[in-house]
């Protein structure tokens, strides 16, 4: 049984999946490039919303447990992982 | 008959579609949140590659024709649309 | 004599320069980290506005001339450079 | 007396300040637009590095204390603030 929060996330991803198929059809029907880009940007926005919800859950559960744990290593790993995600969504890629 | 370039873009999007389904399964199987985020970031990277290819084709065809056209309005619209896409992928969202 | 557009861009950059000095002071006065991050994000937003204005001018002048030029190499370079800037502001950095 | 870490951050920001002045001069000397954009992108990269260092310090100090605190409100605020920063650096701005 998956919890409600997870079900909501899966529904968002199913909608994104459908949206990706929609862009495939646009390309096959030779849609105007800017219209295609508007749709891929909308898909990226939807993915970012999923990311924010997943991160929120992660901070409230795994990160909280790790930081409250007497095991210093767990805390450091939790912080390292958050910084990894933050760095990965950096806006300006390395040269 | 769609051209090779479009076929390649559609293949990329089909792979992205499969990748999105994969993340759905990860969530259903209660995968570690950071692993989920790593996958959604990989999907976003793949989408950005599609964007770059679509933009390249757009610049080489529609934008080139619009800028070479005697119709000044076509040039201005082509420039406005490029700026719209550039602004939409701004890295820091408005307050 | 620099034109009005350039003067406006230089004024924006002088304001950004002052904003950067402001963040230096915040750090020296041990301001709350999130407040510091809010200011660096505001600086990045201001820089992106400068980028958009510079790109708009570039598209309307250099890119227009290059695409209208009989020299095919000039057109290709103009397109390559726009794609370089677009790729550099990719939102998700490579692994 | 400011600590070494803060001194290092202030030095980075002084270098960014100088870099911004450099772009002002480029504009005043009518430098090629793409060269200007390359520099503003480099400044944004440098700012993102400052952000990552500030966030790392924040996670290791304020967030750790807030999450370990018996005061549930402190924990929730710490998580909300991290999500605010994460959302603000979203890569695709809202329509």
From TrEMBL, chains A, B, C, D:
User: Which InterPro entries does the UniProt record give?
Assistant: Metal_Tscrpt_repr, Metal_Tscrpt_repr_sf
Write down the Pfam families for this protein, in alphabetical order.
Answer: Trns_repr_metal
Q: Which GO terms describe its biological process?
A: negative regulation of DNA-templated transcription
The organism's superkingdom is given as: Bacteria
A single GO molecular-function term is: metal ion binding
Question: What is the name of this protein?
Answer: Transcriptional regulator
Q: What species is given as this protein's source? A: Herpetosiphon aurantiacus (strain ATCC 23779 / DSM 785 / 114-95)
């Amino acid at each position: 049984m998956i919890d409600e929060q997870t079900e909501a996330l899966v529904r968002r991803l199913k909608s994104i999946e459908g949206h990706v198929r929609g862009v495939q059809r646009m390309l096959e029907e030779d849609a105007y490039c800017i219209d295609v880009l508007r749709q891929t940007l909308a898909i990226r926005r939807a993915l970012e919303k999923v990311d924010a919800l997943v991160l929120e859950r992660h901070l409230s559960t795994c990160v909280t447990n790790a930081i409250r744990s007497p095991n210093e290593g767990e805390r450091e790993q939790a912080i390292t992982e958050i910084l990894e995600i933050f760095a990965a969504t950096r806006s300006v890629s390395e040269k």
